[in-house]
Amino acid sequence: MSWSWSFQKADGSPAQPSAANSPDGTFPSQSDAESWVGEVWRDLAADGVDAVTLEEDGKFIYGPMSLHPGDGLDSE
């Protein structure tokens, strides 16, 4: 199994994070994928990514999940 994120703009169109903030391939587990996005979501948002969607082997798991503070991810 492989887990991956897709990236969207506010209008639902695809977004492309900078190379520095793109994952290196897929993740071996859902936990690894979620940990990664938990570490870089602010950088993704700074790159113009408004939301992310999680997939397992191309199958929709959940999303889109907003990356904007106040929309559920910002714990500060």
Distance between the termini: 33 Å
Globular, elongated, flat, extended or rod-shaped: what is the shape?
A: globular
* Tally of DSSP β-strands: 3
Regions with little confidence, pLDDT below 50 for 5+ residues: none
How many individual helices? 1
Largest sheet: 3 strands, antiparallel
Residues in helices, as a percent range = 10-25%
**Strand residue content:** 25-35%
Helices and strands, in N-to-C order? EHEE
Describe the structure.
The chain has one helix and three strands. By secondary structure, it is an alpha+beta fold. It has one domain. A three-stranded antiparallel sheet has the order 1-2-3, covered by helices on one side. Strand 2 (51-56) and strand 3 (59-66) form a beta hairpin. The longest helix is centred in the middle third of the chain and has 17 residues, at 30-46. The mean pLDDT is 91.
